[in-house]
């Protein structure tokens, strides 16, 4: 198997969507399927209970990992949509978009 240039995303990592209906928006990784796919949700259109399985090639990993989301997923296996929205909002404000 060829080694991919892209590292695997972490749970709680913020990603920018590069392809698809949500293109240009941000989401948070709530699961990693394998080396090609991640499960993402944003708390708005993509709720935690109906996340999107995205090819990692269609995502741009951001350097930020939301510790609130990561901790919540680790402790309970779930995260609230409000927490997802808050983490994305906070990231966008910090980034100045």
Provide the β-strand percentage band.
Answer: 25-35%
Secondary structure: number of strands: 5
Task: Tell me the radius of gyration.
Answer: 12 Å
Element string (H = helix, E = strand): EEEEEHH
Which spans have pLDDT < 50 for at least 5 consecutive residues?
none
Q: Structural class of the helix and strand makeup?
A: alpha+beta
Amino-to-carboxy terminus distance: 38 Å
Tally of individual helices: 2
Q: Strand count, sense and closure of the main sheet?
A: 5 strands, antiparallel
Query: Could you say which overall geometry the principal axes of the C-alpha atoms support?
Result: globular
What percent of residues adopt helix (DSSP H or I)?
25-40%
Task: State the strand order across the main sheet.
Answer: 4-3-2-1-5
On the 0 to 100 scale, the average pLDDT is: 93
Explain the overall architecture.
- With 97 residues, this protein is of the alpha+beta class.
- The chain has helices at residues 67-76, 81-95; strands spanning 13-17, 26-32, 37-41, 52-55, 59-65.
- It has a five-stranded antiparallel sheet.
- The longest helix is centred in the C-terminal third of the chain and has 15 residues, at 81-95.
- The mean pLDDT is 93.
Question: What descriptive keywords fit this protein?
Answer:
single chain, 97 residues, alpha+beta, 5-stranded antiparallel β-sheet, 5 strands, 29% strand
SSE layout:
Elements: E1 13-17, E2 26-32, E3 37-41, E4 52-55, E5 59-65, H1 67-76, H2 81-95
Antiparallel strand pairs: 1-2, 1-5, 2-3, 3-4
What's the short story on this structure?
This protein is α+β, with helices and mostly antiparallel strands.
């Amino acid at each position: 198997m060829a080694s991919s240039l892209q590292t695997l995303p972490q749970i709680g990592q913020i990603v920018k969507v590069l392809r698809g209906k949500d293109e240009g928006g941000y989401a948070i990784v709530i699961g990693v399927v394998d080396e090609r796919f991640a499960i993402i949700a944003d708390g708005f259109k993509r709720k935690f209970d109906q996340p999107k399985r995205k090819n990692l090639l269609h995502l741009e990993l951001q350097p930020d990992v939301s510790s609130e989301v990561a901790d919540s997923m680790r402790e309970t296996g779930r995260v609230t949509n409000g927490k997802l929205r808050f983490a994305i909002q906070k990231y966008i404000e910090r980034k100045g978009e």
